[in-house]
Amino acid sequence: MDWMNGTTPDSRQGAAPPFPPSISSTPARIVVPPTPLECVPYARKVSRVSIRGDAWTWWRSAKGRYRRGGTPSVGSVLVLKRTRHLRLGHLAVVKAILNDREIVVDQANWLNRGRIHLNIPVRDVSAGNDWSAVRVWYAPGGNYGTRTYPVQGFIHPQPPRYTLTHSTRRG
Q1: Block means of pLDDT (10 residues each) for the chain, length 171 residues?
Q2: Can you give the pTM of this predicted structure?
Q3: How many angstroms from the chain centroid is the CA of residue 136?
């Protein structure tokens, strides 16, 4: 199933407002897939990170299988912690890195309607500039949302790097 094709813009919301002019000229947009999606199968499909389970479990499940870290890279999966507002956590796939504190993601089911949100800015609002807390662009309103979401980290699609050791001694 190709979720990127065969989808239609959400006609009830109209065209999503573009990014703030200082970020990009690529507009944020919301598309409606043939069937509603959740963030987990969408992230698994577009990121090449093959983990099962609720979004909040991905961080633990990735240990030893994928590289994990506190900084984004293109193709990595942003893992938001579960909170009162994100009961199962949330996943988004990093599409672009704009600067130290802003990235662009694609994600599904952000507003709990099963839609795909493309070209969505995410801003690091952590005091230490360490990506431990973010705000997400609210496409229907054309601004960053007011909620701050705690971040578990980024899962990178490459497997972890192991150091192989062998003896070079001959004798």
Answers
A1: 46 46 70 95 95 97 96 97 95 96 97 92 97 95 94 89 56 47
A2: 0.82
A3: 10
